[in-house]
Amino acid sequence: MKRFGGEDTIEGKAGPCYVACGLAITAATIAFFCLPQLGQDCLEVEDKKFRVILEMNGYRTEMMGMPARREAYDLDKYGGIERVVEI
To answer: Computed from CA positions of residues 43, 49, 51, 54, in that sequence, does the dihedral angle turn out positive or negative?
Structure first.
């Protein structure tokens, strides 16, 4: 606060707010340009990839998930793991 004019001035009281706003804008800019974009179905794609990895390691996944969601899946269209091992 001293660098902005001290505690008794308006600038001194507004200085920490300016610093916080600058940090928030910097964080938002980094997040906008550096983080990958996620789609609406990104969790479903990750679930399908995880299921394939489990099956490749010998786990049985037929009974995983809710009955309405147990469906055949194909990861080729998502660019995921191409090799599927039949158990």
So the answer is: negative
